[in-house]
């Protein structure tokens, strides 16, 4: 099973292959900040992928559109991903303040 390390909280959780980062965290008992409920619209769930970007699903047009709309075109040159959209296929390390146990 792929592992997701969440910083700055410092926890590592297991994910089902193909599960989103946010869904894996919620299934493990963690709150992941979002305002749109995981629809990929608000970018509140966005996290900076520090390691394992190649182990995530490719960014789709909808995710790209909303990152550009909410965060600006420059955000697309970083390793920022919407954690409600990014599906895990291998180990990743993501930086997302605000994640906490339920």
Provide structural commentary.
The protein is α+β, with helices and mostly antiparallel strands. The model has no long low-confidence stretch (mean pLDDT 97). The two termini are 23 Å apart. It has a single domain, classed as Ubiquitin-like (UB roll) (Roll), CATH 3.10.20.30. It is built from 2 helices and 7 strands, in the order ββαββαβββ. It is globular. Strands 2-1-6-4-5 form a 5-stranded mixed beta sheet, with helices on one face. Strands 3-7 form a two-stranded antiparallel sheet. Helix content is 18%, strand content 25%.
Give structural attributes.
single chain; 102 residues; alpha+beta; Ubiquitin-like (UB roll); two-stranded antiparallel sheet; globular
């Amino acid at each position: 099973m792929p592992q997701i390390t969440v910083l700055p909280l410092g926890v590592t959780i297991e994910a089902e292959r193909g599960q989103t980062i946010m869904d894996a965290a919620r299934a493990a008992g963690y709150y992941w900040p979002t305002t749109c409920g995981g629809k990929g619209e608000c970018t509140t769930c966005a996290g900076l992928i520090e390691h394992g970007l190649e182990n995530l699903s490719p960014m789709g047009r909808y995710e790209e559109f909303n990152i550009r709309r909410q965060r600006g075109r420059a955000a697309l040159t970083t390793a920022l991903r919407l954690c409600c959209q990014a599906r895990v296929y291998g180990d990743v390390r993501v930086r997302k303040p605000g994640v906490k146990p339920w």
